[in-house]
Amino acid sequence: MNILTIDTSTTVCSVALTMGDRVVAETLLNMEKTHASRLLNLVDMILCVAGLDVKDLDGFAVALGPGSFTGLRVGIATVKGLALASNKPVCGFSSLAMLAMNIPWAAHPVCPMFDAKKKEVYTALYNCRELPSPLINDCVVSPGDFLEKLEGDIIFVGAGALTYRELIVDRLGARAFFAPLSANLPRASNGAELAKCVFAQCAAVLPAALVPCYIRPSEAELAKMKR
């Protein structure tokens, strides 16, 4: 199955083209620029290099969050547009599960972390064998409160873990392990692995059914609730 997978849930913009069990091409950009200005160019470049057209794809996949509200909307809107234009199926997956897959077959639980600002993190806890299995579901929480829930040795991965590394070490000490620098960036090719399982289970959805998983209310929603 030929799948184009997109992740724009953080400052990282990643696009992957997979054909069956083979990663044909992948881009990974970690720059403080808007995803909207480069995403379609990256999609075009990957398809061109692979000698494929959108019509040659069997489906699309995209990270649904949690993550940057604007980034998620850009990625999801792009996948919706491509899928509608080509009449192809789509599916979504957790951006945190995708990040946790950077630490495969881990001996200890893996804790992916994105910096959610406002002194909070998007995080979860996964048992990472062939595919990640949640021990604590995706959530947004203060890092200190989340660390109190953790027992035993934990592997931390992601930009949020780098931001709060000092606090993590202070709370967990020698029980805290940190991923190497290159593993802290989410990769769309890992999302493609999650998508393959969804497509194999015939659980793809119509493009209109793709919605971001923000976890917490947006600023507009918060302002509305205050009024």
Describe the structure.
- It is a single chain.
- Helices cover 33% and strands 30% of the residues.
- By secondary structure, it is α/β, with parallel strands linked by helices.
- It folds into 2 domains: 2-95 and 187-226, ATPase, nucleotide binding domain (Nucleotidyltransferase, domain 5), CATH 3.30.420; 103-184, Nucleotidyltransferase, domain 5, CATH 3.30.420.40.
- Strand 1 and strand 2 form a beta hairpin.
- The termini are far apart.
- The model has no long low-confidence stretch (mean pLDDT 94).
Provide a short characterization of the protein structure.
This protein is an alpha/beta fold. It is built from eight helices and ten strands.
Question: What would the keywords be for this entry?
Answer:
227 residues; alpha/beta; Nucleotidyltransferase, domain 5; five-stranded mixed β-sheet; 8 helices; 30% strand; globular
Based on helices, strands and strand pairing, what is the structural class?
alpha/beta
How are the strands of the biggest sheet laid out side by side? 3-2-1-4-5
The count of domains is 2
Strand fraction equals: 25-35%
Order of helix and strand elements from N to C terminus: EEEHEHEHEEEHEHHEHH
Give the number of DSSP strands.
Answer: 10
Total of helices = 8
Write the layout of secondary structure elements.
Elements (H helix, E strand, L loop, with lengths): L1 E6 L4 E8 L2 E9 L8 H12 L8 E7 L3 H18 L3 E5 H6 L9 E8 L2 E9 L3 E10 L1 H5 L6 E4 L1 H5 L1 H8 L3 E3 L9 H13 L18 H8 L1
Parallel strand pairs: 1-4, 4-5, 6-9, 9-10
Antiparallel strand pairs: 1-2, 2-3, 6-7, 7-8
